[in-house]
Design a protein that fits this description.
213 residues; single chain; 23% strand; alpha/beta; 7 helices; binds iron/sulfur cluster
């Protein structure tokens, strides 16, 4: 059984898969409280559902790309059989995780999109740095940047851990409505940082407050 906040079909917005139709399975609960969190409704709202029931709903969308997200999806034990079953069904599976829970048991073929929390989130002390050692060539890393201090933190982590050569992509994403994307882009260009400046695409397609997109 898993506690599910929502399952929906939308456009992937926050990785190198951005722009592709995708089914999202959002799991309830998170043990972080990032200052800029845009899914606080996933902290508590949700219903217990069986694996079969979840897979049936995903199947109905007939979409080859599925993202398991939250909340923090790695808090629920049954997320592992969920990912295995989605892979067995032939889907490309993305896992969006906050970076503070170990990725050691994430199935090999899953594409992990690993957040590294910057100081502006208020949660950078919780980063599990061993997750960076576990990165596989198809995994991606994301830094949500609120200000210059966050940018410099991200730049240092990217450089120190050689992330650009160890992951499929490294994203720096401005906090929507707070960090100016042009300013962030100019910092990246000035430093020749080997990253992708990433916008949350769905927030430009739909109203930023819209849920289920
Ligand atoms: S880890 Fe994700 S869901 Fe949890 S508080 Fe941070 S942004 Fe929100």
């Amino acid at each position: 059984m898993l506690t599910i906040n929502e399952i929906f079909y939308s456009v992937q917005g926050e990785s190198s898969y951005a722009g592709r139709p995708c089914v999202f399975v959002r799991l309830t609960a998170c043990d972080l409280r990032c200052s800029w969190c845009d899914t606080p409704y996933a902290f508590h709202e949700g219903a217990k559902r069986s694996l079969e029931n979840i897979l049936e709903e995903v199947e109905a969308f007939a979409c080859p790309l599925v993202e398991v997200t939250g909340g923090e999806p790695l808090l629920q034990e049954d997320v592992y059989p969920l990912m295995e079953r989605l892979l067995e069904d032939g889907r490309t599976v993305l896992l969006e995780t906050g970076g503070h829970r170990s990725t050691a048991r994430v199935p090999e073929r899953v594409v992990t999109i690993l957040d590294v929390k910057c100081p502006g989130s208020g949660e950078s002390g919780k980063n599990d740095w061993s997750n960076l050692d576990r990165l596989r060539p198809h995994d991606e890393v994301k830094f949500v940047v609120k200000d210059r201090a966050d940018y410099e933190y991200a730049r240092d982590v990217i450089t120190r851990h050689d992330l650009a050569t160890r992951a499929a992509a490294v994203h720096v994403s401005p906090v929507h409505g707070v960090m100016n994307v042009r300013t962030l882009s100019e910092w990246v260009l000035a430093d020749k940082l080997p990253v992708r400046v990433q916008l949350q695409l769905h927030k430009y397609i739909w109203d930023p407050a819209t849920r289920g997109v």
